[in-house]
Design brief:
two-stranded antiparallel sheet, 6 strands, 3 domains, mainly alpha, 511 residues
């Protein structure tokens, strides 16, 4: 009982520090956080809770559910970063809880704790869990639908068909067809492998379950089509779903091997402990649950590897089974070096990178905008930054050499990693990249400027300014927000605000 209480306490502490503790500490990140947050602000301002707009233009990127949750949170907590990120942190917490209960049901509390702890500490999860976007909510519904499918396979109880369809419907309201595709294809492959394809068809085409799905998922889609017609079909289904798979959108492309380094980095600090499950392939195919989890991950990995548009967070849809398998196959005898070393490597890289730029300058960077940001951001790599990373590295080396159990080393490594990422790295990146945008927007809001955006896509600026940007070609007298490397295109101007790659100016003369 006492040990169980300690495990629950550790998970609660981990969830708080990983998901909630810094929700309102840093500005919204562009593009996605800024876009979702501004669309929610415009929804609240207009009172139109059906169709989303971004800077006055139709936004068909995602369905409606996350906007509703963000709007509700804003009504409770006010219009701020905490409120807009809170639904994601809450969704991620339920995602952890669902994983814990699922693993506990089929294995034991020790494995349930490890799977949940791997999730809480994972680099990509600790970032996505407090991002004001749809992905934490979607991953919750994908996980719940997949857990229900396996329970259906095991028990053959019809209630799990209905639960699956409820979660798939909610996922469809969160991010669209991907919430249907993953459970549908993975379950088909698994049931076919187990020679139960007849039961699969009977379950999938259950009339009552389909009725539940359509009752939950389709009303918004129907109303949106009635409201926007063909623009909705073209914008949501064709552009942001079919075209996203067929070709790279917004420059997000990569090779078939794109997600291999994403996995290695995204699963830090426990990449080795989790990915070593692949050497257990013979054991995996002999166990129904292991096989189901493995198919789940493998389909996500292969599908998005073939997708034209590649973004790091797509692979997260297949992380839940990796966390579970990693926990089940965790070996207490594994060398402590592999428990601690991956995080040490990251700390060392984070120590060395700014030194490279200090010594060699920033001219090695090709992107002019990134160069401007980094040039003025080197000052942020202060004494505190280096001390924290050196201390974290030294403590990690001490852990490797200590006589503590591997389990203790794992816990300390994970909690220390959460602290470094959330209290040092993310605030630094936010201050370098996003704080100047927020400051410029607040200045524009204070002076009631009507601002034009010129060759820059930072929706967080519009959010913090709390008014739509001015449209049209640049003219003399315009107040303009842009990147500093775009200023060469404007003949004469007065600088109102300039910092780390962005500028708010008043145009005096156009070429």
């Amino acid at each position: 009982m006492n040990r169980t209480y300690h495990l629950y306490s550790l998970l609660a502490i981990g969830v708080f520090f990983s998901f909630f503790s810094t929700l309102g500490f840093v500005p919204l990140f562009d593009l996605d956080e800024g876009a979702f947050s501004e669309a929610t602000r415009e929804m609240l301002q207009s009172g139109n809770y059906l169709t989303t707009y971004l800077d006055g233009n139709l936004r068909f990127d995602k369905p409606i559910l996350i906007y509703w949750f963000q709007a509700l949170s804003v009504k409770i907590f006010g219009l701020n970063e905490f409120a807009l990120r809170f639904p994601s942190a809450l969704s991620a917490s339920f995602w952890v809880l669902a994983t814990f209960l699922f693993v506990k049901r089929f294995f034991n509390i020790q494995s349930a704790f490890l799977a949940s702890f791997f999730m809480i500490c994972s680099l990509q999860i600790t970032i996505i869990a407090k991002a004001a976007i749809a992905d934490a909510l979607l991953n919750l519904f994908i996980a719940l639908s997949m857990f229900s499918i396996y329970k259906l396979y095991q028990t053959k109880k019809s209630k799990f068909i209905y639960l699956t369809y409820i979660f798939v419907a909610l996922g469809t309201l969160t991010k669209g067809p991907v919430a249907i595709l993953i459970p549908l294809v993975v379950s088909f492959i698994f049931f076919a492998f187990k020679m139960e394809i007849k039961f699969w068809f009977k379950s999938v085409f259950n009339p009552k379950a389909l009725g539940v799905f359509f009752l939950i998922a389709t009303p918004w889609y129907i109303l949106e089509y009635i409201d926007q017609g063909q623009k909705f079909i073209d914008g949501f289904f064709l552009k942001h779903n079919l075209e996203r798979f067929d070709e790279a959108m917004e420059g997000h492309y990569g090779s078939f091997l794109y997600y291999i380094p994403v996995l290695l980095i995204g699963l830090l600090p426990f990449s080795y402990l989790i990915l070593r499950v692949f050497v257990k392939f013979k054991d995996i195919i002999k166990n129904d649950l292991f096989l189901f989890l493995f198919i789940w991950f493998l389909f996500v990995f292969i599908f998005f590897s073939f997708s034209g548009t590649k973004l790091p967070h797509y692979i997260i849809y297949g992380y839940t089974p990796l966390f579970i398998l990693g926990a089940i196959f965790y070996d207490l005898k594994v060398k402590s070096f592999w428990t601690v070393f991956p995080s040490v490597m990251l700390y060392m890289i984070l120590l060395i990178l700014p030194l490279i730029f200090f010594i060699g300058g920033v001219d090695m960077i090709q992107d002019e905008f990134a160069k401007e940001i980094l040039k003025e951001s080197l000052v942020l790599f202060d004494f505190k930054y280096f001390v924290i990373l050196i201390v974290a590295s030294l403590l990690s080396f001490i852990l490797i050499k200590s006589n503590w159990t591997n389990y203790t080393k794992l816990l300390i490594t994970g909690l220390m990693f959460i602290g470094v990422i959330n209290f040092l790295i993310l605030p630094l990146v936010a201050n370098a990249k996003q704080m100047p945008i927020k400051e410029a927007a607040l200045l524009a809001k204070k002076n009631n400027y009507q601002v034009k955006m010129y060759r820059i896509n930072t929706p967080s600026f519009v959010f913090y300014m709390q008014q739509l940007s001015k449209k049209g070609k640049l003219e003399s007298g315009d107040i303009v927000f842009t990147k500093v490397n775009r200023l060469k295109n404007i003949k004469k101007y007065d600088i109102i605000y300039q910092k780390r790659g962005v500028a708010l100016i008043k145009v005096k003369e156009i070429d």
